Amino acid sequence: MSDLFIVTCEILLLGLLIVGAAFDIAKFRLPNWLTAATALLALPWLALSAPVWPDLGLHLAAGLLFLAVGILALRFDLMGGGDVKWLAALAIWVGLGLDLVRLLMLTGFAGGILAGIMLLLGRFGVTYGVQDGKRHLPYGVAIALAGLDFWFRRGHLGQQIAVLWG
C-alpha cells in the first residue's frame, strides 16, 4: 500500500513539473498553488520512502536554505519570486547533499540554454517574453527540467522507467 502511495506522489510531482513549465511558458509566472502542492507533496513521499529522522529535517533544511538564498537573488532582481519558491519546494524533495548541488547546477545549465534561446529569438525580432521593455525568461522550464532529472534518478517510478529504457 505504501508503494502505491509513493508512486502516486511521484506521478503527481511529474504532473506538477509539466504544468509548472507550461504555465511559466504561457504566463511568465509560477502560481503559489504550484509551489504549495510541490512542497506539501514531498512530505508524505519522504515519510514513506526515507527514515523520518534525520532525513525529514535535512530535506526541510534544504528547502529553507534555497528559500533564503533565493530571497537574496530576488532582492537583486536575479530571479522571480515564483522561481525562488518553486526551487525551494523542489529542494525539499531533494534534501541536503550532492543531489541538491546537481539540481542547482542543472537548473543553471538549462537556464543558460534557455537564455541563449531567448537571445536568439530577440535577434530575429520575436517579441516573446518582452514585458515592460524587459525580456523575461520562463525560468520555471529550467527548474522543471532539473526536477525531471531528480524524478528519473531518485524517484521509484522514474528508476523503473529508466530500467525499461535501458
Can you walk through the features of this model?
This is Prepilin peptidase. The mean pLDDT is 93. The chain is mainly α and 166 residues long. It is globular. The chain contains 7 helices and 2 strands; from the N terminus they run H-H-H-H-H-E-E-H-H. It has one domain. Helix 3 runs antiparallel to helix 4.
- The topology string of helices and strands comes to HHHHHEEHH
Tell me the span between the first and last alpha carbons: 27 Å
* Structural class determined from secondary elements: mainly alpha
Number of domains: 1
Radius of gyration: 16 Å
Number of helices: 7
Summarize the structure.
This protein is an all-alpha fold and 166 residues long. The model has no long low-confidence stretch (mean pLDDT 93).
